[in-house]
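re: ur question from yesterday

yeah so i grabbed the chain u mentioned. its 150 aa long if i counted rite. heres the sequnce exactly as i have it in my notes:
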Amino acid sequence: MTFVLPETLPATVAELDTLLDAARASINVIQARHTAGEELSHDDVVELNRLLDAVDTVTSARGEAATREAEHAEQVQQSLARAETALAAPEPVEPVEAAPDAPAGDHWISDPVGERFGLISFSQDDEPVAQARELIGKDPEVGEEFELED
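ran it thru and got these structure tokens back, copy pasting raw so excuse formatting
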């Protein structure tokens, strides 16, 4: 069987390796005939040179394909690393650390063990209470308001 170099070369290293193997097998046939003592004709030498040129062409294409495949593999690894980072749970932030500034005289408090968070307020400003709801993502389960007597 005579090796035929396709007009459009395959894109993957594996397919190009298969093509190289076929071209080299055809070269081996010509070499084996010569080693067995057969005189190579002019057509045999032309065919051998055509096969060697094909090997050069496919080898070059294989190098380019290997570079593309390596770059693609690196892009896949980088994308997967980014995805892992993007999907990682954020570090927990203590509510007090994330709380907005309280009005003068007011103080945010928290009890991480009991998972409690609150505001001690001596001002009449209701804004910190609304911000606390935004901060914890829900209405407080327990809310106590006291009036101080003079």
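noticed a couple things. The chain is about 55% helix and 5% strand. also Residues 95-136 form one domain.
anyway ttyl
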